[in-house]
Every structure is written in C-alpha cells, then in structure tokens.
Amino acid sequence: MAAMSNPCAPMGARVGGSPLSSGCSSSALRFNVKSAKSVSFSFGEVLGCDGGAPLSIGIKTRVVPWRTLKLQSPAPSSDQHSSSTALRCLGTLGTLLLMPVDAHARGVTMPLGRWSLPFLPCISMGSPAFEHRAGRGNFAHWAPECVSSQNTLKALVDEATGTSTDEKQYSLELQEDEELLKKKAALVVQQLAGSCIFLVGMMGSGKTTVGKHVSEALGYYFFDSDKLVEESRGKTVAEMFRYGREEEFRNAESEVLEQLSSMVRLVVATGGGAVVRPENWSYLRHGITVWLDVPVDSLAERVVAVGCHSRPLLGVQAHDSAYKQALERLTHILQERADFYASADAVVSVEELARKRGQDINSITPTMIAVQVLEEISKMLERGDRDPSLQY
Ligand SMILES: Nc1ncnc2c1ncn2[C@@H]1O[C@H](COP(=O)(O)OP(=O)(O)O)[C@@H](O)[C@H]1O
Ligand SMILES: O=C(O)C1=C[C@@H](OP(=O)(O)O)[C@@H](O)[C@H](O)C1
C-alpha cells in the first residue's frame, strides 16, 4: 500500500466525528503499530491515523463462531480498491482488529476469542510491508499492546467486551439456524427410519463438529470413529502412525466401522481415510454416507489452527511453513481420494453453500452445514436414489 498516501480522502465518511475528506484525523485515536487488540466500533465512529500514516482495512468478513478465521487484505496493487474496501468496512457495525503491520497480510489464520463478532474488518496501520508480504500466522503470537492518545481506546475495548448490536443480530441469526436445524431434523428423522449417517471427507472437513450438531438435532447418538479406534487400541492415532503402524490403525478402523454398521440411529464421523478401503464401504453402505466437501485451503487453515500433531498423515514439521506443507499434502491426498468421497450417497459442498448464501466460506457455520446435510439426505431419499435393501 505504498502509494496509498491518503486512503481516507476519497471515502467522504466521518471519522471520530470529523469529515475524512480533509485528511486523516489523528486526534480521534492513535494506535501503536505494535498493537494487536480487538475493539468495537460503530459506523464511522473512530478511525484515526497515526501522524498521517494511512490506515488499510481488510475486506469485511463474517466471523464464524469458531476457532479460525481467514482474513483477506485488499488487492496489493490497487489503492482505489483499498479505499473502496475501507468504505465498505466502515459501512458496517463491527469489530476492528488491529494487527501489527509487519507481520501478516493475506490469508491470516487466527484463533478467535472474545472478538467473535459478526463483521470483522481487519485494519492495520499503513505500512508498505503489510500489503505486499504474504504471510500466515497465529494471532496469539502477536504482542497485544494498544496505545491511545485519548481515553477513547479503553471505552472502545470496554464496548468490545460488551454485547454490541451486531452480536445481538448475530446471535439472533444463529438461533434462527438452530431452529431451522431442529425443524429440518424433525422431518428427516421420519424419512431416515433409523438409518445411520456416516460423514465422510478429508481431515478437517468438519465431520466431528458437524456430526455432533446433526446427531443432537436428530436425537441420534454420535460416534467419532478415530476416538473408538483409540479406545480399542489404548493408543492415540498419532502414536499408531508414529510407530509405522498405519496398517494397525486401518485395521482397527475397519473393525470399528463394522461394529457401528450393525447399529441404528447413529451419526458417525469417519476418519478421513476410511473411504479408501473397499471393505469399509460394505459397512458404510448400511447407512447413508454424506461427503463434506470443503475447499482444500480452508482445510489447511483449520488443521494448522488446531495443530497438526493429531493428524500425523500430514507430516507437517516446521511450524513456520505449516500452512504451506499442510496445503500441499492435503491437495495430494484429496486428489487420491476424490473419487472415493464422490461415491457417497449425498454431497454437501461448503463452497456451493457459501455461494448460494452469498457469504464467505469461512462464515458458513457448522449449524448451517448440518442443515444442508439433512437437506441433501432428504432430497436423496425422496429421489429414491438409494437401494432400500441397503438400509439396516
Ligand atoms: N464450519 C466450520 N467453520 C470453521 N471451522 C470449522 C468448521 N467446522 C469445523 N471447523 C473446525 O475445523 C477443525 C476440524 O474440524 P473437525 O470437526 O475435527 O473435522 P474432522 O472431524 O472432519 O477432521 C476444528 O478445529 C473445528 O473447530
Ligand atoms: O485422512 C486420514 O487418512 C486420516 C484422518 C484422521 O481423521 P480425521 O478425518 O477425523 O482428521 C485420522 O483417521 C487419521 O489421522 C488418518
């Protein structure tokens, strides 16, 4: 953003009560560039500049009530774009996340804490480095320190820890999704007639997370096949892989699936590799299989955010390039398995869901995905695609 000398000027919005068109207001609030804090702002309330240094503001993104969030910074070469992005961000209520300028740019993955507010524009104090350096990082590593020239910051932080209008709106939307899930489940549970649901998909696709929502809504039991394998062998998945015992893990996984296949009213999160063994399909076909299809870059962000130690197949070693390693490995694994996943009875494409809802992929919550899982199962059963003799 080197050439963005006065990004505020074209916006004509008000910052701290003063028109921006005359330049950046430094009286409203000054941020220490090293800072990393979350504060809440109302529309056009406060956006100051430190000694005339430009602010850059990331593209507005809907925050998921989940652990990771992808933030994108504006296109590096387009000042115009940055300005109009800034304007759009100002046009929302929300939280502004202040990031150290020299650390990270596009595609930042970070754990979310208290600042899980609906709209999270990402702002940084203008530094050419910020806009032009691609990087990834963990928010927790950034030193939180924020300096205000007035007492404004404290008020803003206080506001951030309270309940904003947006939070209310957001929790309302979450409630609506929960209601929708319950309604959908009440219908689909009849159609299912006790059949189990096996969620398949890549590691990190949300089988466990979404599966719990689906099972709760249906009044089904939930099982994570990895957990059952660990219990049956008295070792973690990572331990089994570490000692070169993938075969032992795969055998245990097949045993677990076989046992589950004779049961009813279950939602099962299968391990990402379960689909590869033909034998496993003979078990999975006792129930309804649903593929959670999540773009590979989102998968990489998620698994890196929670740490790759529990997913030994990724073989991610160095922390500083964890995302890159995970992305490469996941891409490769997906290529090998895509056809297997695609032979599931139903597919939920999170990308497609996001497109239909006009939202960012990272804003699609597990509850929304759970609704879609039931929707796809319902459509599939209505079409009569599935051989009824395969049901339990
Ligand atoms: N819809 C979602 N949006 C954002 N993060 C998600 C979503 N679903 C799951 N996650 C996160 O991704 C990670 C992997 O999810 P998990 O359910 O364990 O996947 P799987 O069981 O398929 O390996 C977890 O940290 C979870 O919180
Ligand atoms: O994709 C795979 O081969 C694996 C996925 C993991 O499960 P999740 O999909 O639950 O991460 C786990 O079974 C094991 O690490 C192998």
From TrEMBL:
Record keywords? Amino-acid biosynthesis, Aromatic amino acid biosynthesis, ATP-binding, Kinase, Nucleotide-binding, Transferase
Cellular component per GO? chloroplast; cytosol
For the biological process aspect of GO, one term held by this record is: aromatic amino acid family biosynthetic process
Q: Which SUPFAM superfamilies match?
A: P-loop containing nucleoside triphosphate hydrolases
The places in or outside the cell where this protein is found are: Plastid, Chloroplast
Write down the EC number.
2.7.1.71
Family under the similarity heading: Belongs to the shikimate kinase family.
Task: Quote the function comment for this protein.
Answer: Catalyzes the specific phosphorylation of the 3-hydroxyl group of shikimic acid using ATP as a cosubstrate.
Question: What name does the UniProt record give this protein?
Answer: shikimate kinase
Give the organism the record lists: Marchantia polymorpha subsp. ruderalis
